[in-house]
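Model: Ready when you are.
Researcher: Fold this.
Model:
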Amino acid sequence: MSDSSSSFLHVAFPAGVRIEQGEDGPRLWVRDEPLSLGVLPRAIWDAFAWLVDASVSEDALVGHVEKAGGFQAVVFLHVILAKLARRGALRYLVQGPVGTLATLEPLSPRFELSSQPLASVRRLRLSRFAHVRRDGDALVLESPRAHGRVVLGHAAALALLAGLAMPTTPDAAVERLAPHEIPAALTLLELLFRTGFVLAAEFDGNTEEEHRPALALWEFHDLLFHAGSRRRLYGRRVGGTYRLAGTVAPPPAVPPPSEPAIALPRPDLALLARSDPPLVEAMERRRSHREPGARGLTLAHLGELLFRCARVRQVHPGERDEESSRPHPSGGARYPLETYVVVGQCEGLESGLYHYDAAGHRLEQRGGMTPSVRALLADAQVGSHPPRVLLILAARFARTSFKYESIAYALILKEAGVLLQSLSLAATAMGLAACVVGRGNPELFEHAAATEGAAESSVAEFAIHGCTPEEQPLAEPHSWP
């Protein structure tokens, strides 16, 4: 930091960092694991003792180390502090007359403070990927591009961020604050600049995020989702943690059946194994068909496709709750996806909305051809006519989030992709004219199916337009339930 700001910048150890005396001298422990720092001067260990229970200004810390160990110890101190930050074992606090203005928490081994000083740029602008949200009782500033987060401790920090939405000079960014708040706010501004939350604004007012193609082509929500589900950050639990077990009841592997329902024909899998084209042929023949097929669909077609791809083969006890087995893979055998069938034209089936009972291989009637159901078919139209049948893959989100933390939604989308590919290849083998739909309308689906969006909503769609010209007539259903 610059000389003018170092008195407002404090450092401290986060909770979980402690110093213990060992046979070979003091040792630093981080989250119950020893951190190897090599042989450190006594002056640095004495300074570290201050950081365990309180924050210390950068000026005071450097002054103490320099007095006790000289200039060489000060150089060593800065190297060790940077190493601690990369291990998530150091926090930076901006302290002002009003208390803690903000706290920077490093979250990644790639964390570092840029050496470029704030004084080197004329105008600044907040990163377009930066966002403020509530985390527990605190407001935090985060960005998928940053390797740390900032806990906002005072309204002056929010006022500073508001002034950075437009390109502005450092002085103009703090001019709306009270005079006694400005020095600490300038320290925070420099900290935000050196961590990438605030960027240099170029001649046209934009930043590198608008000028560099690799960044300009990312939309905010896409990069946020990518980083949030893929990056490993300190303090973030990832994987099968069952974080709400004992608080929230586990959702069943299969929803309870409902009536009225229509039994679907079951194909003879042994016969299909002999008559189906090889996998490589099905993959090579697969095409996206967006126009009406040569012939229409029948109940037998629909029953076979759903049986091949989406049925429940078995429900069995899992680690904490029920799990199931189906033809396609699912993260942790959670199988959150439910298939809804929107029927426009299908021989043997009335038009309307149905839910596929994957355990009973039945279609449960959810409604007739209402305006909402008709709108679902129209929304999926990409050719000259809407699809004859639209399969909507909806997720019961709790099935996956009950077990998984940080990656639950990513797992759901991966499963949807797997099921869409299964449907595509099975449809090709059956001679159906079908295609994956690139977008959907979750609000329209929720209204038509009467689901609560936060609990169950659509994540993917698959349109069936009929049979392709080369399709051979389908044999009569091999067996009925």
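Researcher: Now this one.
Model:
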Amino acid sequence: MELKKWDTYVKNEQDEIIKDTQQFLQIESVLDETTAKGLAPFGDGIREAYDWLLHKARTDGFQVKEYDGYAAHIEWGSGEEVVGILCHIDVVPGGDDWTSPAFSAQIRDEKIYARGAIDDKGPTMACYYAMKILKDSGVSLGKRIRLIVGTDEESQWRCVDHYFKHETMPTFGFAPDADFPIIYAEKGICDFHYTKKLSNKNGFIQSFQSGQRLNMVPDRANAFLHNIEAHEEELKKSFEQFLLKKDCKGSAETLNGLLKLTVHGVSAHGMEPNDGVNAGLLLATFLLDLSLNEDELAFFQPLVNFFLGDSRGEKLGFSYSNEELGNVTVNLGKMNYELGSHATIGLNVRYPKDAAFEEIKVNLDTGMGQYGFTGEIGSHGEPHMVDKKHPLVRTLSNVYKESTGEEAKLLAIGGGTYARSLDAGVAFGPLFPGQKDLAHQADEHIAIDHLLMITTIYTKAIYELAK
């Protein structure tokens, strides 16, 4: 069916698409272990977004099936085969430095500004409306369409693990969670957690904290220093000079007898740490110039010695690159130190096919072990690849060319999308070539004309895959 016809359907629905996308984005669907319980395994905010979408689907006449608050699917059509569309409704925390609140979904200059606008709630609504348009149009399809709703993509993927314990694998499908034209290959992704118990209770640094998610470059770091009365003014002046030298923002203030030092960095997606500025590493370089005890040195030295200026694993001896997927990358996503208690360091490592994962693990464990840290793997997904000649790839290539007039170049990325949850899954949009990726960054947004355009493309794509 002609693309122009689907474009007309989208234009007829555009007011509802915009309104519903705003409402969906206004729900703060961030992982919150403090409110996790029963049928809200990842917290109240994610459950609220989950309920909102599933209520809408039932109201619009779709079949809905839930799996204990971990995941659900929204389905329409008939047939033995299933076209899967894998979306996620959880988002990373809003972070700092937004022009408008991260969950206000404010419209400015014909753009919707909100955390999740691109990753992945905006594209989720585009795919939902693509399904709705197809259903309401009365077309007859030979396969079922199933929108799979994930809730833990930004953390440990416990949602899809739970879902596929109960459901069969779709025949093939896509995730609207990366770039156009088509991403057929993705790096392996592994989270490493390193911990160490601290015994010395007479240190200079009472606490240090930076980072909220392993797959985000930390945009803020805080340290609280005590026993500084004799050196307070000198420390403040030294810190101001440090900020000027590093050309970064920060502050030094006295709170309840403690000196609080803050450094601001630049957030970015952990798949390319060099796109951001790691605030934790910056602050660590300043603190290492102070008179630190053994525990403090054992925390800050590996940060600087192994990871400052090196997001490729070169200092630890496991750098690797291939032509399709590029370099091994290492993002130092979470750093915590509590005087006399514990220290933790969290890393997100991404590696291309043929990189030696065991070597990466051994070298990390050995390096961190020199400073008394023990490590464990939090989650691990191996590299994913679909044959370039697969019917899924050929069909989506034709849809992209018809929609844009451009040839569909096949891509390999360092990001990890839900596409890897399928035996035959690719990532398909929402970003077009040349568009800046603002996922996980301040002022994340989606232009309204972009939202409507991808809704048209997804309608066409689902129709061609399922007809």
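Researcher: Key takeaway?
Model: The two ends are 10 Å apart (CA to CA).
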